[in-house]
Amino acid sequence: MHHVRGGADHRLDPAGLGEEHWLRVSVEAGGTARVATMHRERDPAEETDDDLDLDWQRCHEAPEHLGKLCELAERAGLSVPFDFGELPARPVRRMGHRPARDHTGPKTRHRDQERQS
Predict the structure, then answer these.
(1) Where is the composition biased (Basic and acidic residues) (predicted)?
(2) For a designed S-S bond to 78, which of 9, 11, 73, 91 qualifies (C-beta 3.0 to 4.6 A apart)?
């Protein structure tokens, strides 16, 4: 497990998540850690159903990766209890390809239409 530290956030890169996903662990002042599954930034217009499915799959794999971290901590004599909240629901597949944004010209607002009349 690769570990990169920056401030109160820690980046964990467990084997098997791939290069586009990682776990971010944020430690609060009271010692509580919050874990989020992260993915590389991508243009929402180019995001596919397969991307969303893979994000969902990585979220559901996170407890397994953190379980391995708990085992390593226990071998070192540390207690690291994890309590997982409700995992996200599987994303609904879109019908067809998501169109790219139309940047062909300025859009007319309703107020502008009234003034042009």
Answers:
(1) 99-117
(2) 73
